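Hi team,

As requested, here is the filled-out complex form for the magnesium ion run. I kept the field names the same as last time so the parser does not choke. Let me know if anything looks off before we queue the next batch.

— J.
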Amino acid sequence: MRSFSAISRSSLETRGWGKKLGRLLLKGGEIIGLTGELGSGKTCFVRGLAEGLEVGEEAWIRSPSFTLINEYDGRLPIYHIDLYRVSSQREMEELNLREYLFSEGVSVVEWFDHLPLKEVEEYLHVAFAYANGNKRKLTFTAYGNLYEEIITGLRDDKRSRIKGFKG
Ligand SMILES: Nc1ncnc2c1ncn2[C@@H]1O[C@H](COP(=O)(O)OP(=O)(O)OP(=O)(O)O)[C@@H](O)[C@H]1O
Ligand SMILES: [Mg+2]
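And here is what came back:
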C-alpha cells in the first residue's frame, strides 16, 4: 500500500500514531519526513515515535527544543532533525545531514520540505493538516518498498483496533 490517511482527534492520538510507526521500525536507516504548518502536530508525533522505539520519557523531556538535531538511544539510534530555522544552503551543509540520513539510525525530519538533498529517494512522508477543532489529518505516503510494508502495518493496526474487542 502506497498511501493511507487517518484523522487524529487529540494530541494523544497523534502521539499514538507516532508510537505505532516507531514500533514498526525494525531495521535502522529509515527516513521519516514530516511536513505541515506550525503547530500541526509534527513534534507530538515524533515524541510517540521515540516511545515506539523505546526511548525513555526522561530523555525526551531533557532534550532541548531549540536544538536542530537531537539524538536519542532507543532500540535504534534516533535522529530528530528540525529544519524550520535552517534556510541557507551553507547552514544545511554545516549540519552534515547525510551523516544522519545515511546511517544505521532512524532519522525523523520536521520541515522535510526544506531538505535540499535530491539523493534521498526512499522515505516515508507524513503530512499533517489542520481539520476542525483539534482534529488533524495525517497522510502517510511511501516512497520505496520498505515503506509500503510499513504503511500496510499501520493500516492493519488501525483495522484491528476498529474491529475492537470482539477479536
Ligand atoms: N490532534 C492533535 N494532534 C496533535 N497536536 C494537537 C492535536 N490537537 C491539538 N494539538 C496541539 O497542537 C500542538 C502541536 O504542536 P507540535 O509542537 O507537535 O506541532 P509542530 O507541527 O511540531 O509545530 P512546529 O512546526 O512549530 O514544530 C500542541 O500544542 C498540541 O497540544
Ligand atoms: Mg515541531
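Two things worth flagging: Strands lie at 3-8, 31-35, 69-73, 77-82, 106-110, 123-130, 136-143. The chain has six helices and seven strands.

Thanks,
J.
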